[in-house]
Amino acid sequence: MHLHLRSLALIALLGSAPVWAQSATTVEIFKSPSCDCCGKWIAHMQKNGFKVETHEVDDIPASRKKLGMPDKLGSCHTSKIGNYVVEGHVPAQDIKRLLKEKPKALGLAIPSMPPGVPGMDIPNSPPYETLLVQADGSTSVFAKH
């Protein structure tokens, strides 16, 4: 009987292993308390398996500067994900790719708030690009949408 209980316990532990291996990546977002579109981006991130910790701040540019993202790439919110900074409404698929490929970079940015980005969903929106941002502020195209 003891052996049977141990086997069941082992099966239960092994059966839950994928849950342990797939714990959600945490996104720390620094946003204005009054920004509606940021809430929609948060929902997009949660829907895509990210855990979101929200920090409501009165000075987004100060948060951006503290994290090292250049003002010229600014948007309505700045996020920290692992060792990367993410500026604006970057799609979850781009962030997942960033975390998988692990390029040497500061992070990703979508400057301003172009229509069509997650949280600014507008039908028939023009194309936009996600930029890979280097520590020196230089950028290259990471993804086209």
Architecture blueprint of SSEs:
Elements: H1 2-15, H2 17-21, E1 26-31, H3 36-47, E2 51-56, H4 60-67, E3 77-81, E4 84-87, H5 92-101, E5 107-109, E6 129-133, E7 139-144
Parallel strand pairs: 1-2, 4-5
Antiparallel strand pairs: 1-3, 3-4, 5-6, 6-7
Radius of gyration: 19 Å
Main sheet summary: 7 strands, mixed
Helices and strands: which structural class?
A: alpha/beta
Spatial arrangement of strands, main beta sheet:
2-1-3-4-5-6-7
Note down, in words, how this protein is organized.
It is a single chain. The protein has 145 residues and is of the alpha/beta class. It has one domain (22-144): Glutaredoxin (3-Layer(aba) Sandwich), CATH 3.40.30. Helices cover 34% and strands 24% of the residues. It has five helices and seven strands; from the N terminus they run H-H-E-H-E-H-E-E-H-E-E-E. It has helices spanning 2-15, 17-21, 36-47, 60-67, 92-101; strands spanning 26-31, 51-56, 77-81, 84-87, 107-109, 129-133, 139-144. The chain has a seven-stranded mixed beta sheet, with helices on both faces. It starts with a helix and ends with a strand. Residues 1-21 have low confidence and may be disordered.
